[in-house]
Amino acid sequence: MSLKKRLANVPEGAGVLFFIQIFATLGFAVLYSTLVLYATRHLHFPAKKATAIMGVFGAFNYGLHLFGGYLGGRFLSNRNLFVGGMALQVVGCAAIAGGSAPLLYWGLALFLTGSGLNVTCINMMLTQRFKPDDLRREGAFLWNYAGMNVGFFVGFTAAGHYQLTESYPSLFLFATIGNLVSIFIAAAYWKTLADRDTPLVEQTDRRKLRGRFAAGVGILVGLVPVVWILLQYPDGTETLVKVICAFVGLALAWLTLRHGDARERNNMWAFLILALGSLVFWALYQMAPSGLQLFAVNNVDRKVGGLEIAPQWIQNINTVVIVVGGPLMSALFVRLRTRGWNIDIPRQFAAALLLMGLGFLALPAGIALAGPSGMVAFAWLFASYVFQSVGELLISPIGYAMIGKLAPRRYQGIMMGSWMLVTGLASLFAGDFSGMIPEPSEGTPATTNHVYARLFAELGSGSLIVGVALVVLVPFLRKLIKDEEAPPPPPASITSGAVAA
């Protein structure tokens, strides 16, 4: 198929969302990769406090996606909510550039409210471009995920550059650029990004539409002081978020039990089981900007060929694997499936967990082979990130695409938000795990390596165990996951007549 025909086959708006995703990711990439280092080096927070804030950062960023999934398409259109959220991110990054602890908290409150509510909007706008049984959806999400990681690559590279000189104000002002560009692109293609098949589109009463819009804007602005207050008390906030996540999980289980359609109910059960597996994956993955980053800074030899690798540049191992591997994996899966290979969602999830386990188990191996100084060779950290990144390719974009397959139409926004909420909960567990690492002042790499080795070995083994459990459950999950039932065959008399004709 020619390139022109391939492009013509892409649903309207999918290409625009690919570029929006690139620029919308820049600000998040900067904060995600720099927050712990900024808090410990510039604001002189203890490592435990910095990792706790990072855990809450992830919890709000991902947890509010559930709220965004509910607001988008009901109170504000997904495109309106996206632009409003990006505007809050611009103001938030500018505030953090002020360089003080009070401005950090206000900046994070603004940024997290924006990023928490608008990420689901991109996913919903993209999934609305495809019918439920459209096989192109998985490829579109893989491409969109690759676009996201282009943004991560640029953000991590810039963050590492400014990190070497600790020019934090310039870095956070740079983060506003991508946010602004994504707003301009959305404005230029406003009509193309219109919502499809949402409760708000179906509403024709203009008075009610204005009321919903006003309520949506009020919620968007009103969340900022709430998030600001909660950021002041990370320990209490962590407990609160975990309770909310447990409530949401129980509510989804209750909705599943009461759902009338048997096929859709089975799909929802499969979603819940896979969500539990993904929780383990993301809890380890989210240690990259906190515990793993502090390990890299203090216990890993980051000089390669005479060049010092900035901590944020290590994250680009992940982005390169995603950007290069995403389209390749999409093409590979299409080819294998046309040849009869059964590569389905349960198998991909199980493989992702096994790869995550191997990635973490590579680190104790590197520690065991460290020299007298205790500094671990960079190659072991590199290998760990490669394993984790391939696992991410198997679970993350497929997880987004899975919503369109498994979620009933009326629950799609809520289940998309719930899927992101799992990542937010995982971020809290990642903060808990990262809080177990030693403070840099507690000793040398030679004396702290054993703590890291034990922690990484336990986490890696746990991921392998859950991965094996999912392998065992693959036949059961396949029975649960069913596409829409085929229509019944016509009566025998009609069939015979058609043949005779």
What does this protein look like?
The chain has 501 residues and is mainly α. It has a single domain, classed as MFS general substrate transporter like domains (Growth Hormone, Chain: A), CATH 1.20.1250.20. The chain contains 19 helices and four strands. Strands 1-4 form a two-stranded parallel sheet. The chain has a two-stranded antiparallel sheet with strand order 2-3. A hairpin with a 2-residue loop joins strand 2 and strand 3. Helix 16 (378-406) packs antiparallel against helix 17. The radius of gyration is 23 Å and the shape is globular.
Overview in brief:
With 501 residues, the protein is mainly alpha-helical. It has 19 helices and four strands.
Descriptive terms for the model:
mainly alpha, Growth Hormone, Chain: A, globular, disordered C terminus
Write the layout of secondary structure elements.
Elements: H1 3-8, H2 14-24, H3 26-42, H4 47-71, H5 78-96, H6 101-127, H7 136-165, H8 168-188, H9 199-202, H10 206-231, H11 234-258, H12 262-285, H13 291-299, E1 300-301, E2 303-304, E3 307-308, H14 311-338, H15 345-368, E4 376-377, H16 378-406, H17 412-434, H18 445-480, H19 492-500
Parallel strand pairs: 1-4
Antiparallel strand pairs: 2-3
Helix pairs in contact: 2-7, 2-8, 3-4, 3-7, 3-8, 4-6, 4-11, 4-17, 5-6, 5-8, 6-10, 7-8, 7-14, 7-16, 11-12, 11-17, 12-15, 12-16, 12-17, 12-18, 14-16, 15-16, 15-18, 16-17
